[in-house]
Amino acid sequence: MTKTAIFAAGCFWGIEEKFLSTDGVVETEVGYIGGKTSSPTYQDVCEGNTNHAEAVRVHYNEEKITYDSLLDIFFDIHDPTQLNRQGPDFGTQYRSSIFVLDEFQKMSAQNKINILNQHKYNGCIVTAIEEAKEFWLAEEYHQKYIRKKKQSGIFG
Q1: Is residue 23, in this structure, part of any structural domain at all?
Q2: Structural domain contains residue 156
Q3: What angle do CA 114, 115, 117 make, to 5 degrees?
Q4: Of 43, 94, 112, 150, whose CA is between 20 and 30 Å from 122?
Q5: At 121, which CATH number?
C-alpha cells in the first residue's frame, strides 16, 4: 500500500533527491506548503511573504519502508537545530517542518523529536510539526531538479 509523507528541510532539490534514491520510495514531488497564499510561485515563496515552506511530498510503499524510517532519513539529511535556515539558505521557506497527514504521523514525529532531543541534540531541535493542508506543486523545472541536471551534465 502506498502512503504519503511531507517534509521540509531547506532547499527542496537535495531533499527530494535523497528521498527519491531511497528503497521503498515510489515517487516524490516538490512544492510549497504551510502558507497563506493560494497557488504560490517560486518567486512568491522566495520573497518570504507567503509563509510557505519548500517541501517534498514522498509517496512510499509501507511494506518496504516505514514512516519512522523516513523520519530517520529526514533528520539525517539536514540540521534540525537551525531555525528558518539550512546552510546558506535562510528564511521561513527553508524551515525544518514535518507536515503531518494524520494522528499517527503526528505522534510518530513527536516521539522521534523527543528521542533525538534526549539522545543526540540536547533539546535543541527546532523542527515544527504542522498539520498538512494544501500542497502546491512547484513549477515543472523544480521537479527532479538534480536528476535533470545530472542528465544534462551540469552535476557530475
Answers
A1: yes
A2: no
A3: 65
A4: 94
A5: 3.30.1060.10
SS3 146: helix
pLDDT in tens, 8-40: 999 999 999 999 999 999 999 999 999 999 999
The answer to whether 77 and 117 are in contact (CB under 8 A) is: no
Under 8 Å between Cβ of 64 and 24: yes
Is 51 within 8 Å of 35 (Cβ atoms)? yes
124 given a catalytic annotation? no
136 belongs to a structural domain:
yes
Catalytic residue among 11, 55, 58, 132: 11
The three three-digit cell numbers of residue 117, written as one number: 532531543
pLDDT in tens, 76-86: 999 999 999 98
In a domain, 128, yes or no: yes
Q: Helix (H, G, I), strand (E, B), or coil: what is residue 120?
A: coil
